[in-house]
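Much of what follows relies on a compact textual record of a protein's fold. An example makes this concrete, so a full record is given next.
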Amino acid sequence: MVRSYVSRLRRVLEPGDPAAVIESVGGGYALRTRDLDLIEFERLLGTARQARRAGDAPAAADALRAALGLWRGAPLAGVNGEYAEFERTRLEQLRLTAIEDLAAADIESGRHAEAVEELARVIAEQPLRERPRELLMLALYRSGRQADALAVFAEIQGLLAAELGLYPGPELREMQRRILASDPALAAPVAPAEPPVPAVSTPASAVVNASAVANASAVANASAVPVAVPGRVPAQLPPDVPEFAGRAEEGARIAGALVPSAAAVPVAGIEGLAAVGKTALAVHVGHAVAARFPDGQLFVDLGATGDPLAELLRGVGVPDAGLPESFSERAALWRTLTSGRRLLVVLDDARDAAQVRPLLPGSGGPAVVITARRRLYDLAHAHWLKLGGLREDDSLALLETLIGGGRLREEEAAARELVRRTGGMPHVLLALGARIASRPGWTLAEAMRRIGRPDPASPVFPPECRAIEQPYESLLEQLSPAQTRAFRLLATLETPEFSLTAAAAALDLPRQDTEILLESLVDAHLLEPGGPERYLYQPPLWTFARGHAHADLTGAVPAPGPWSGARQVPPLRRAAGGSAPPRSRAGRPRPSGPG
């Protein structure tokens, strides 16, 4: 049977000279020809490699195109066995690599449309293969189709995650980063002149190719704005505060939480009272760690923008014409464009977790800093820092930058008393320091006597008082009527610190309801815990609340704040005949003034 098969092969391969191709050797046969398609294929691959090393991309493309022209279906089709299966796999990988090399050579030769067509076939056969996607992104980018190039990355990212739970490899991520950064090295070389199209009938495949070239050229030269236009690396952080003082420990904690991760997005949150310095700390830390985030720093004031997603997308290079219509599509595009990029995103003045979640970037490089007046408890994996007033020495350092070291050292005791009365609140120190600096003839003792909150009937409200109270006024707008009444009314007690029992008596509420109400003011940072069942006001807040207490205590005259040493609002006093306040008809303690 073997002899019969060999005889037939000889007649097919070399009809005129049966022994020229298959020669009888000993007890077997030998194939003496070098005209095998596999040998020719490998020879042409070698020619292409030599041309690439010589920098001749068109010659490499011609050799690869000739090599691929030898293929007719699957190699060794119909041949069974382990060796044949191994060879089929090896040869198929050679073919795919040759197609990829051909696309790379066409891209270098300026034939971007041909490369797109070649790569599309490979991706259809091998959707999880990454090098064709990388080359396709480059071909599309050089055709002026930046948005389509970035969409290729988004597609393979979703596919790898869904199929294998993996993230695109470093080459794909680097290509995405370079496209977003508009890397000059990605710019296309000058394409060779296209030969004229002959006026003869053209095969359908050639019509498709010509159409692709025309479309690519039209896109590259169109006046319409593409979906995504890479620009400069964003650097949106506001300037650091010149008078920034202290916060070394807090800054180190925030910076320590902003370590880029391949699998997650580190999120650091700063909560605290309005104007306590949350934004200043976030910006200060952002500048300190900027070197960790070479792809840029983004900053969005969530309290001042109506569409933060659009603002963020513009920050990474998406023009208005390229913004998706729906909110969910914008969020998906935002995650896609930020995945794998070393970006720092500062979200300032967040309202709640629902506002923040769609703004979190993709994983693999970005980090986020959030500032909020209240902790966002339902935002998973965030590391929160509660920011209070400055320490006394840091407050003195800030005051010194405003009024000068000589003036401060001359009256150090008065300066320490002043900063204690401000509670270390930076905006209070800045306002009072600016006022004192504008009056070089005042001593600090005289300044403390002169500066303070005037009576409501005063014809003039000093500008420093307005600067101090404006952030607190905005807080009152966010409170319920019950919270506002409690905040004001409890400030008329004899001291800024009080017990739960005293608060329940003043508010004429059961202890449990009172505790819930007080804890809600603690969450808003309008009160501070002072120990078991005890609460206290920070000095500036006590001043502010007492100045507004007349809204709840008819006839009470608010006085300047405790930093001025002036008179205070008449406190709620105990009944003359005992230790408890007067009782209401319901038997509950009742405040001495109307509620």
Observations:
- The two ends are 113 Å apart (CA to CA).
